[in-house]
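User: I'll paste a sequence; please echo it back and then give the predicted structure.

Assistant: Echoing your sequence first, then the prediction.
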Amino acid sequence: QVQLVESGGGLVQAGGSLRLSCVASGSIFSIGSFGWYRQAPGKQRELVATIGRAGNTNYADSVKGRFTISRGNAKNTVYLQMNSLKPEDTADYLCNSMPALYEWGQGTQVTVSS
């Protein structure tokens, strides 16, 4: 059974940076695209960034130019570098394949203060 564990969240002031990590229990990242999602209180979960098997990336318009998704040297790790954070980036951040095929992890909370 695949397990997804996210980490790296925290409290940061607007304009600050955080780097999130996602580790999967198995070598699932070679299957295809993987992504970072986020869910704010009272809002639907949204896909913010994806990375394909070839390293191709896509971003939601709201984070384009500020967030960078990348794979680690270990194939079961994916990162999300978040710069120039805004209060509206506050959410629980989760990783999964795209489309989401695996059971969701607990996520990592990102809180951006103004």
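The radius of gyration is 13 Å. Strands lie at 4-7, 10-13, 18-24, 34-39, 46-51, 57-59, 67-71, 77-82, 91-97, 108-113.
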